[in-house]
Amino acid sequence: MPFPTDFAWGAATSSYQIEGAVEADGKGASIWDTFAHTPGAIANGDTGDVACDHYHRWRDDVELMASYGLNAYRFSVSWPRVQPDGRGRPNEQGLDFYRRLTEALRERGIRPALTLNHWDIPQALQDRGGWQSRDTVERFADYARLCAEALRDRVEWWITHNEPWIISALGYRLGIHAPGVKDTEAELRTAHHLLLSHGAAVEAYRATGLAAPVGITLNLLPTYPQTESEADARAATLSDGYTNRWYLEPVFNGRYPADMLEYFGDRFSLDWIRPGDVERAAQPIDFLGVNYYSRRVVRAPRPDEQAEFAWVVRTETTTGVPTSDLGWEMTPPVLRDLLVHLRDTYRSPTILITENGCSLNDEIAPDGRVHDPRRIAFLDGHLRAVAEAIDAGVDVRGYFAWSLLDNFEWAEGYGPRFGLSYVDYPTQRRIPKDSFAWYRDVVAGNGPA
Ligand code: FCB
Protein backbone atom coordinates (compact mmCIF):
# COMPACT_ATOMS: atom_id res chain seq x y z
CA MET A 1 0.00 0.00 0.00
CA PRO A 2 1.34 3.40 -0.98
CA PHE A 3 0.48 5.36 2.17
CA PRO A 4 3.34 7.64 3.28
CA THR A 5 5.02 6.65 6.56
CA ASP A 6 3.75 9.69 8.46
CA PHE A 7 0.18 9.24 7.15
CA ALA A 8 -2.42 10.46 9.64
CA TRP A 9 -4.78 7.66 10.69
CA GLY A 10 -7.56 9.10 12.75
CA ALA A 11 -11.20 9.39 13.61
CA ALA A 12 -13.34 12.52 13.67
CA THR A 13 -16.01 14.03 15.91
CA SER A 14 -17.53 17.47 16.51
CA SER A 15 -18.31 19.41 19.65
CA TYR A 16 -22.11 19.55 19.67
CA GLN A 17 -22.41 15.94 18.54
CA ILE A 18 -20.43 14.48 21.47
CA GLU A 19 -19.67 16.92 24.27
CA GLY A 20 -22.94 17.47 26.14
CA ALA A 21 -22.42 19.71 29.21
CA VAL A 22 -24.11 22.50 27.33
CA GLU A 23 -24.13 24.87 30.28
CA ALA A 24 -20.90 23.86 32.00
CA ASP A 25 -18.13 26.23 33.05
CA GLY A 26 -19.54 29.40 31.57
CA LYS A 27 -20.47 28.06 28.16
CA GLY A 28 -22.95 30.20 26.24
CA ALA A 29 -25.83 28.83 24.18
CA SER A 30 -25.17 27.78 20.61
CA ILE A 31 -27.61 27.86 17.72
CA TRP A 32 -27.79 24.08 18.00
CA ASP A 33 -28.85 24.31 21.66
CA THR A 34 -31.69 26.56 20.56
CA PHE A 35 -32.62 24.58 17.48
CA ALA A 36 -32.56 21.16 19.16
CA HIS A 37 -34.99 22.46 21.76
CA THR A 38 -37.42 23.67 19.10
CA PRO A 39 -40.39 21.27 19.11
CA GLY A 40 -40.40 19.06 16.04
CA ALA A 41 -36.92 20.04 14.85
CA ILE A 42 -35.12 16.80 15.74
CA ALA A 43 -36.21 13.19 15.33
CA ASN A 44 -37.56 11.72 18.53
CA GLY A 45 -37.17 15.07 20.33
CA ASP A 46 -33.49 14.34 20.86
CA THR A 47 -31.04 17.09 21.87
CA GLY A 48 -27.29 17.36 22.39
CA ASP A 49 -27.72 18.22 26.09
CA VAL A 50 -25.85 15.08 27.15
CA ALA A 51 -24.78 13.51 23.85
CA CYS A 52 -21.77 11.23 24.58
CA ASP A 53 -20.91 13.20 27.71
CA HIS A 54 -17.46 13.60 26.21
CA TYR A 55 -16.93 16.84 28.15
CA HIS A 56 -16.65 14.66 31.26
CA ARG A 57 -15.39 11.43 29.69
CA TRP A 58 -12.70 12.85 27.42
CA ARG A 59 -9.88 11.07 29.28
CA ASP A 60 -11.48 7.69 28.62
CA ASP A 61 -12.09 8.65 25.01
CA VAL A 62 -8.43 9.59 24.55
CA GLU A 63 -7.47 6.24 26.11
CA LEU A 64 -9.84 4.49 23.73
CA MET A 65 -8.13 6.13 20.75
CA ALA A 66 -4.70 5.31 22.13
CA SER A 67 -5.60 1.69 22.74
CA TYR A 68 -6.71 1.36 19.13
CA GLY A 69 -3.47 2.90 17.90
CA LEU A 70 -4.85 6.07 16.28
CA ASN A 71 -2.15 8.63 15.54
CA ALA A 72 -4.52 11.52 14.77
CA TYR A 73 -7.88 12.85 15.96
CA ARG A 74 -10.14 15.50 14.46
CA PHE A 75 -12.45 17.40 16.83
CA SER A 76 -14.06 20.81 16.87
CA VAL A 77 -14.07 23.66 19.34
CA SER A 78 -17.42 24.85 20.59
CA TRP A 79 -17.23 28.58 19.90
CA PRO A 80 -19.70 29.49 22.70
CA ARG A 81 -17.58 27.58 25.22
CA VAL A 82 -14.69 29.85 24.33
CA GLN A 83 -16.63 33.07 23.68
CA PRO A 84 -20.08 32.73 25.28
CA ASP A 85 -21.30 35.91 23.58
CA GLY A 86 -19.36 35.40 20.38
CA ARG A 87 -17.09 38.34 21.03
CA GLY A 88 -14.63 39.80 23.48
CA ARG A 89 -12.45 38.21 26.11
CA PRO A 90 -12.24 34.43 26.13
CA ASN A 91 -13.80 32.20 28.75
CA GLU A 92 -10.62 30.58 30.09
CA GLN A 93 -12.51 27.59 31.52
CA GLY A 94 -13.75 26.77 28.06
CA LEU A 95 -10.28 27.06 26.59
CA ASP A 96 -8.88 24.90 29.40
CA PHE A 97 -11.01 21.99 28.22
CA TYR A 98 -9.33 22.08 24.83
CA ARG A 99 -5.90 22.71 26.38
CA ARG A 100 -6.25 19.55 28.48
CA LEU A 101 -7.63 17.54 25.59
CA THR A 102 -4.90 18.50 23.13
CA GLU A 103 -2.20 17.96 25.75
CA ALA A 104 -3.48 14.47 26.55
CA LEU A 105 -3.68 13.65 22.85
CA ARG A 106 -0.11 14.75 22.26
CA GLU A 107 1.13 12.72 25.22
CA ARG A 108 -0.37 9.68 23.53
CA GLY A 109 1.16 10.47 20.15
CA ILE A 110 -2.25 11.41 18.70
CA ARG A 111 -1.96 14.47 16.48
CA PRO A 112 -4.87 16.91 16.91
CA ALA A 113 -6.75 18.33 13.93
CA LEU A 114 -8.93 21.19 15.15
CA THR A 115 -12.04 22.52 13.39
CA LEU A 116 -13.05 26.03 14.42
CA ASN A 117 -16.62 25.89 13.14
CA HIS A 118 -18.49 22.62 13.06
CA TRP A 119 -21.81 24.51 13.07
CA ASP A 120 -22.53 25.33 16.75
CA ILE A 121 -21.93 29.09 16.65
CA PRO A 122 -22.97 31.31 19.58
CA GLN A 123 -26.69 32.07 19.77
CA ALA A 124 -25.69 35.63 20.73
CA LEU A 125 -24.28 36.07 17.22
CA GLN A 126 -27.38 34.56 15.68
CA ASP A 127 -29.42 37.16 17.54
CA ARG A 128 -27.44 39.75 15.58
CA GLY A 129 -27.93 38.03 12.22
CA GLY A 130 -25.54 35.07 12.41
CA TRP A 131 -23.92 34.18 9.12
CA GLN A 132 -26.27 36.51 7.29
CA SER A 133 -24.53 39.42 8.95
CA ARG A 134 -21.21 40.65 7.63
CA ASP A 135 -20.10 41.44 11.17
CA THR A 136 -19.87 37.70 11.91
CA VAL A 137 -16.95 37.53 9.47
CA GLU A 138 -14.74 39.66 11.70
CA ARG A 139 -16.04 37.93 14.83
CA PHE A 140 -14.93 34.61 13.36
CA ALA A 141 -11.48 35.97 12.54
CA ASP A 142 -11.11 37.16 16.17
CA TYR A 143 -12.18 33.76 17.43
CA ALA A 144 -9.67 32.05 15.12
CA ARG A 145 -6.86 34.25 16.42
CA LEU A 146 -7.86 33.63 20.00
CA CYS A 147 -7.88 29.83 19.53
CA ALA A 148 -4.56 29.92 17.69
CA GLU A 149 -2.95 31.88 20.51
CA ALA A 150 -4.41 29.68 23.24
CA LEU A 151 -3.65 26.33 21.61
CA ARG A 152 -0.47 27.19 19.74
CA ASP A 153 2.01 24.34 19.32
CA ARG A 154 -0.54 21.74 20.37
CA VAL A 155 -2.57 21.47 17.19
CA GLU A 156 -1.17 19.82 14.09
CA TRP A 157 -3.82 20.89 11.55
CA TRP A 158 -6.19 23.87 11.71
CA ILE A 159 -9.50 23.74 9.85
CA THR A 160 -11.64 26.88 9.53
CA HIS A 161 -15.11 25.63 8.57
CA ASN A 162 -16.72 22.24 8.27
CA GLU A 163 -18.94 21.88 5.18
CA PRO A 164 -20.08 25.41 4.34
CA TRP A 165 -22.55 24.05 1.78
CA ILE A 166 -24.34 21.99 4.43
CA ILE A 167 -24.52 24.99 6.74
CA SER A 168 -25.93 27.19 4.00
CA ALA A 169 -28.27 24.73 2.30
CA LEU A 170 -29.64 22.79 5.27
CA GLY A 171 -29.54 25.68 7.75
CA TYR A 172 -30.76 28.52 5.54
CA ARG A 173 -32.65 27.13 2.53
CA LEU A 174 -34.18 23.88 3.69
CA GLY A 175 -34.45 24.90 7.35
CA ILE A 176 -33.74 21.40 8.64
CA HIS A 177 -30.56 22.40 10.49
CA ALA A 178 -29.94 25.34 12.82
CA PRO A 179 -30.89 28.12 12.57
CA GLY A 180 -33.88 26.78 10.61
CA VAL A 181 -34.19 29.51 7.96
CA LYS A 182 -35.94 28.80 4.62
CA ASP A 183 -34.77 31.35 2.10
CA THR A 184 -32.52 30.80 -0.91
CA GLU A 185 -31.04 34.27 -0.88
CA ALA A 186 -30.20 33.82 2.81
CA GLU A 187 -28.45 30.61 1.81
CA LEU A 188 -26.24 32.39 -0.75
CA ARG A 189 -25.49 35.26 1.58
CA THR A 190 -24.51 32.78 4.30
CA ALA A 191 -22.26 30.89 1.92
CA HIS A 192 -20.60 34.16 0.96
CA HIS A 193 -19.92 35.17 4.54
CA LEU A 194 -18.64 31.70 5.36
CA LEU A 195 -16.20 31.88 2.45
CA LEU A 196 -15.14 35.40 3.33
CA SER A 197 -14.70 34.48 6.99
CA HIS A 198 -12.60 31.50 5.98
CA GLY A 199 -10.22 33.92 4.26
CA ALA A 200 -10.32 36.32 7.20
CA ALA A 201 -9.62 33.50 9.66
CA VAL A 202 -6.65 32.26 7.65
CA GLU A 203 -5.25 35.82 7.61
CA ALA A 204 -5.76 36.12 11.38
CA TYR A 205 -4.19 32.72 11.95
CA ARG A 206 -1.14 33.56 9.84
CA ALA A 207 -0.73 36.84 11.70
CA THR A 208 -0.14 34.86 14.91
CA GLY A 209 3.02 33.47 13.35
CA LEU A 210 1.96 29.85 13.70
CA ALA A 211 3.33 27.52 11.07
CA ALA A 212 1.05 24.48 11.44
CA PRO A 213 -0.96 23.81 8.28
CA VAL A 214 -4.35 25.49 7.89
CA GLY A 215 -7.18 24.59 5.53
CA ILE A 216 -10.94 24.21 5.09
CA THR A 217 -13.17 21.14 4.96
CA LEU A 218 -15.70 20.82 2.14
CA ASN A 219 -18.23 18.06 1.68
CA LEU A 220 -17.86 17.21 -1.97
CA LEU A 221 -20.65 15.54 -3.88
CA PRO A 222 -19.45 14.05 -7.16
CA THR A 223 -22.47 14.50 -9.41
CA TYR A 224 -23.48 12.37 -12.37
CA PRO A 225 -26.29 12.76 -14.91
CA GLN A 226 -28.88 9.98 -14.84
CA THR A 227 -28.91 9.63 -18.62
CA GLU A 228 -26.80 10.84 -21.51
CA SER A 229 -29.38 13.43 -22.52
CA GLU A 230 -28.26 17.03 -22.88
CA ALA A 231 -30.81 18.16 -20.33
CA ASP A 232 -29.50 15.74 -17.70
CA ALA A 233 -25.92 16.75 -18.46
CA ARG A 234 -26.86 20.37 -17.83
CA ALA A 235 -28.62 19.38 -14.60
CA ALA A 236 -25.43 17.67 -13.43
CA THR A 237 -23.23 20.63 -14.34
CA LEU A 238 -25.43 23.09 -12.48
CA SER A 239 -25.86 20.81 -9.50
CA ASP A 240 -22.08 20.42 -9.29
CA GLY A 241 -21.78 24.19 -9.64
CA TYR A 242 -24.16 24.77 -6.78
CA THR A 243 -22.82 22.21 -4.26
CA ASN A 244 -19.13 21.92 -5.15
CA ARG A 245 -17.75 24.61 -7.47
CA TRP A 246 -19.48 27.46 -5.59
CA TYR A 247 -17.02 26.71 -2.76
CA LEU A 248 -13.99 25.29 -4.54
CA GLU A 249 -13.63 28.16 -7.01
CA PRO A 250 -13.55 30.96 -4.39
CA VAL A 251 -11.19 29.00 -2.12
CA PHE A 252 -8.71 28.09 -4.83
CA ASN A 253 -9.21 30.69 -7.55
CA GLY A 254 -10.73 33.72 -5.83
CA ARG A 255 -13.86 33.81 -8.00
CA TYR A 256 -17.34 32.36 -8.19
CA PRO A 257 -17.97 30.02 -11.12
CA ALA A 258 -19.24 32.13 -14.04
CA ASP A 259 -22.19 29.89 -14.97
CA MET A 260 -23.55 29.89 -11.43
CA LEU A 261 -22.96 33.58 -10.93
CA GLU A 262 -25.05 34.19 -14.02
CA TYR A 263 -27.78 31.82 -12.83
CA PHE A 264 -28.03 33.34 -9.36
CA GLY A 265 -27.41 36.85 -10.64
CA ASP A 266 -30.59 36.57 -12.75
CA ARG A 267 -32.60 35.83 -9.61
CA PHE A 268 -31.01 37.80 -6.78
CA SER A 269 -29.26 41.13 -6.40
CA LEU A 270 -26.15 39.56 -4.82
CA ASP A 271 -25.30 43.08 -3.66
CA TRP A 272 -23.68 41.68 -0.53
CA ILE A 273 -20.77 40.50 -2.69
CA ARG A 274 -18.41 43.46 -2.40
CA PRO A 275 -15.30 44.14 -4.46
CA GLY A 276 -12.34 42.15 -3.14
CA ASP A 277 -14.45 39.69 -1.13
CA VAL A 278 -14.03 36.58 -3.24
CA GLU A 279 -10.34 37.28 -3.68
CA ARG A 280 -10.03 37.41 0.10
CA ALA A 281 -11.54 33.93 0.34
CA ALA A 282 -8.60 32.63 -1.68
CA GLN A 283 -5.88 32.94 0.95
CA PRO A 284 -3.20 30.35 0.26
CA ILE A 285 -4.04 27.26 2.31
CA ASP A 286 -1.93 24.23 3.16
CA PHE A 287 -4.51 21.52 2.58
CA LEU A 288 -8.08 20.84 1.54
CA GLY A 289 -10.17 18.73 3.92
CA VAL A 290 -12.46 16.41 1.97
CA ASN A 291 -15.57 14.88 3.51
CA TYR A 292 -16.85 12.16 1.25
CA TYR A 293 -19.88 9.97 1.90
CA SER A 294 -21.66 9.40 -1.38
CA ARG A 295 -22.22 10.53 -4.94
CA ARG A 296 -25.24 12.27 -6.46
CA VAL A 297 -27.15 11.21 -9.53
CA VAL A 298 -29.39 13.91 -10.96
CA ARG A 299 -31.68 14.56 -13.89
CA ALA A 300 -33.51 17.51 -15.38
CA PRO A 301 -37.01 18.07 -14.05
CA ARG A 302 -40.00 17.19 -16.22
CA PRO A 303 -42.06 20.21 -17.35
CA ASP A 304 -44.78 19.69 -14.74
CA GLU A 305 -42.45 18.82 -11.92
CA GLN A 306 -41.56 20.85 -8.83
CA ALA A 307 -37.77 20.72 -8.56
CA GLU A 308 -35.20 21.54 -5.92
CA PHE A 309 -34.18 24.46 -8.09
CA ALA A 310 -35.24 25.10 -11.65
CA TRP A 311 -32.64 22.73 -12.92
CA VAL A 312 -32.31 19.55 -11.01
CA VAL A 313 -33.97 16.56 -9.48
CA ARG A 314 -32.00 14.16 -7.37
CA THR A 315 -32.79 10.63 -8.30
CA GLU A 316 -33.44 7.85 -5.87
CA THR A 317 -30.74 5.27 -5.37
CA THR A 318 -29.67 3.24 -8.35
CA THR A 319 -30.70 -0.40 -8.50
CA GLY A 320 -27.93 -2.75 -7.46
CA VAL A 321 -25.85 -0.15 -5.63
CA PRO A 322 -25.54 -1.03 -1.92
CA THR A 323 -26.71 1.57 0.57
CA SER A 324 -26.10 2.39 4.21
CA ASP A 325 -29.02 2.11 6.63
CA LEU A 326 -29.62 5.82 6.08
CA GLY A 327 -30.12 5.00 2.40
CA TRP A 328 -26.90 6.61 1.19
CA GLU A 329 -25.31 4.85 -1.77
CA MET A 330 -21.95 3.25 -1.05
CA THR A 331 -19.71 4.03 -4.00
CA PRO A 332 -16.02 3.79 -2.98
CA PRO A 333 -14.42 4.07 -6.45
CA VAL A 334 -15.99 7.52 -6.82
CA LEU A 335 -13.62 8.74 -4.11
CA ARG A 336 -10.60 7.91 -6.26
CA ASP A 337 -12.06 9.81 -9.20
CA LEU A 338 -12.93 12.78 -6.98
CA LEU A 339 -9.38 12.99 -5.63
CA VAL A 340 -7.83 12.77 -9.09
CA HIS A 341 -10.28 15.41 -10.34
CA LEU A 342 -9.30 17.78 -7.51
CA ARG A 343 -5.63 17.26 -8.30
CA ASP A 344 -6.17 18.00 -11.99
CA THR A 345 -8.49 20.96 -11.52
CA TYR A 346 -7.09 22.82 -8.50
CA ARG A 347 -3.29 22.74 -8.82
CA SER A 348 -2.70 19.53 -6.94
CA PRO A 349 -3.71 20.47 -3.41
CA THR A 350 -2.56 18.50 -0.38
CA ILE A 351 -5.60 16.60 0.85
CA LEU A 352 -6.78 15.24 4.15
CA ILE A 353 -9.84 13.01 4.08
CA THR A 354 -11.46 14.64 7.10
CA GLU A 355 -14.61 12.45 7.14
CA ASN A 356 -15.73 9.19 5.59
CA GLY A 357 -18.03 6.61 7.11
CA CYS A 358 -21.48 5.05 7.10
CA SER A 359 -24.47 4.71 9.37
CA LEU A 360 -25.70 1.21 10.14
CA ASN A 361 -28.35 -0.06 12.50
CA ASP A 362 -25.72 -1.56 14.80
CA GLU A 363 -26.82 -3.67 17.75
CA ILE A 364 -25.09 -5.37 20.62
CA ALA A 365 -25.00 -9.09 19.77
CA PRO A 366 -25.64 -11.85 22.33
CA ASP A 367 -21.85 -12.21 22.68
CA GLY A 368 -21.72 -8.60 23.88
CA ARG A 369 -19.95 -7.34 20.79
CA VAL A 370 -21.03 -5.25 17.81
CA HIS A 371 -20.48 -6.99 14.49
CA ASP A 372 -20.45 -4.56 11.59
CA PRO A 373 -18.96 -6.31 8.55
CA ARG A 374 -20.68 -3.86 6.17
CA ARG A 375 -18.81 -0.95 7.78
CA ILE A 376 -15.54 -2.83 7.43
CA ALA A 377 -16.27 -3.38 3.74
CA PHE A 378 -17.22 0.29 3.35
CA LEU A 379 -14.04 1.60 4.98
CA ASP A 380 -11.85 -0.95 3.22
CA GLY A 381 -13.26 0.02 -0.17
CA HIS A 382 -12.69 3.70 0.46
CA LEU A 383 -9.14 3.20 1.72
CA ARG A 384 -8.36 1.24 -1.42
CA ALA A 385 -9.73 4.14 -3.44
CA VAL A 386 -7.47 6.53 -1.51
CA ALA A 387 -4.52 4.21 -2.16
CA GLU A 388 -5.29 4.27 -5.88
CA ALA A 389 -5.42 8.05 -5.84
CA ILE A 390 -2.05 8.21 -4.07
CA ASP A 391 -0.67 5.81 -6.67
CA ALA A 392 -1.97 8.20 -9.32
CA GLY A 393 0.03 11.01 -7.72
CA VAL A 394 -2.56 12.70 -5.51
CA ASP A 395 -1.02 14.14 -2.34
CA VAL A 396 -3.24 12.63 0.39
CA ARG A 397 -1.74 12.93 3.88
CA GLY A 398 -4.41 11.60 6.19
CA TYR A 399 -7.73 9.83 6.70
CA PHE A 400 -10.24 10.40 9.50
CA ALA A 401 -13.07 7.91 9.86
CA TRP A 402 -16.43 9.39 10.80
CA SER A 403 -16.82 8.81 13.64
CA LEU A 404 -14.93 7.81 16.78
CA LEU A 405 -18.26 7.34 18.57
CA ASP A 406 -21.92 6.96 17.73
CA ASN A 407 -23.27 10.44 18.36
CA PHE A 408 -25.97 13.08 17.87
CA GLU A 409 -26.60 13.02 14.12
CA TRP A 410 -28.13 16.50 13.84
CA ALA A 411 -31.78 16.48 12.68
CA GLU A 412 -31.77 12.68 12.79
CA GLY A 413 -30.95 12.59 16.52
CA TYR A 414 -29.38 9.46 18.00
CA GLY A 415 -30.94 6.96 15.58
CA PRO A 416 -28.11 6.75 13.04
CA ARG A 417 -24.92 5.11 14.26
CA PHE A 418 -21.73 6.14 12.46
CA GLY A 419 -19.21 5.22 15.18
CA LEU A 420 -16.23 2.89 15.30
CA SER A 421 -17.40 2.60 18.89
CA TYR A 422 -20.98 1.85 19.82
CA VAL A 423 -22.34 4.13 22.52
CA ASP A 424 -24.91 2.71 24.92
CA TYR A 425 -26.48 6.06 25.75
CA PRO A 426 -28.22 5.14 29.03
CA THR A 427 -24.91 3.99 30.56
CA GLN A 428 -22.54 5.94 28.27
CA ARG A 429 -20.58 2.73 27.83
CA ARG A 430 -18.36 2.65 24.73
CA ILE A 431 -18.25 -0.72 22.98
CA PRO A 432 -15.65 -0.78 20.21
CA LYS A 433 -17.22 -2.37 17.14
CA ASP A 434 -15.54 -5.04 15.00
CA SER A 435 -14.69 -2.25 12.56
CA PHE A 436 -12.58 -0.54 15.21
CA ALA A 437 -10.50 -3.71 15.70
CA TRP A 438 -10.17 -3.95 11.93
CA TYR A 439 -9.11 -0.27 11.76
CA ARG A 440 -6.50 -0.86 14.46
CA ASP A 441 -4.86 -3.39 12.13
CA VAL A 442 -5.07 -0.95 9.24
CA VAL A 443 -3.28 1.71 11.28
CA ALA A 444 -0.65 -0.76 12.50
CA GLY A 445 -0.04 -1.96 8.94
CA ASN A 446 -0.15 1.56 7.45
CA GLY A 447 -2.97 0.51 5.12
CA PRO A 448 -5.48 -2.31 4.70
CA ALA A 449 -3.90 -5.75 4.30
C1 FCB B 1 -21.29 15.35 7.87
C2 FCB B 1 -21.01 16.15 9.13
C3 FCB B 1 -20.79 15.32 10.35
C4 FCB B 1 -21.69 14.11 10.39
C5 FCB B 1 -21.64 13.37 9.09
C6 FCB B 1 -22.46 12.11 9.07
O1 FCB B 1 -22.04 16.12 7.00
O2 FCB B 1 -19.89 16.96 8.95
O3 FCB B 1 -20.94 16.15 11.47
O4 FCB B 1 -22.96 14.48 10.73
O5 FCB B 1 -22.03 14.19 8.05
List the helices and strands and how they pair.
Elements lengths: L7 E5 L2 H4 L12 H6 L17 H14 L4 E5 L2 H4 L9 H16 L3 E7 L5 H4 L8 H16 L6 E6 L1 H10 L10 H24 L6 E6 L3 E3 L4 H24 L4 H8 L11 H5 L5 E5 L4 E4 L13 E2 L18 H13 L5 E5 L17 H19 L4 E7 L18 E4 L4 E4 L1 H11 L5
Parallel strand pairs: 1-2, 1-11, 2-3, 3-4, 4-5, 5-7, 6-8, 7-10, 10-11
Antiparallel strand pairs: 8-9, 12-13
Helix pairs in contact: 3-5, 7-9, 8-9, 13-14
The structure holds beta-D-fucopyranose.
Plain-language structure description:
Helix 7 packs parallel to helix 9. This protein has an 8-stranded parallel beta barrel, surrounded by 6 helices. Strands 6-8-9 form a 3-stranded mixed sheet, covered by helices on one side. Strands 12-13 form a two-stranded antiparallel ribbon. The chain is of the alpha/beta class and 449 residues long. The model has no long low-confidence stretch (mean pLDDT 96). It has a single domain, classed as TIM Barrel. It has 15 helices and 13 strands. The longest helix is centred in the middle third of the chain and has 24 residues, at 184-207. It has helices at 15-18, 31-36, 54-67, 79-82, 92-107, 123-126, 135-150, 164-173, 184-207, 230-253, 258-265, 277-281, 333-345, 373-391, 434-444; strands spanning 8-12, 72-76, 111-117, 157-162, 214-219, 223-225, 287-291, 296-299, 313-314, 351-355, 396-402, 421-424, 429-432. A hairpin with a 4-residue loop joins strand 12 (421-424) and strand 13 (429-432). The structure holds beta-D-fucopyranose (FCB). Beta-D-fucopyranose binds at residues 14, 17, 162-163, 166, 219, 291, 355, 402, 409-410, 418.
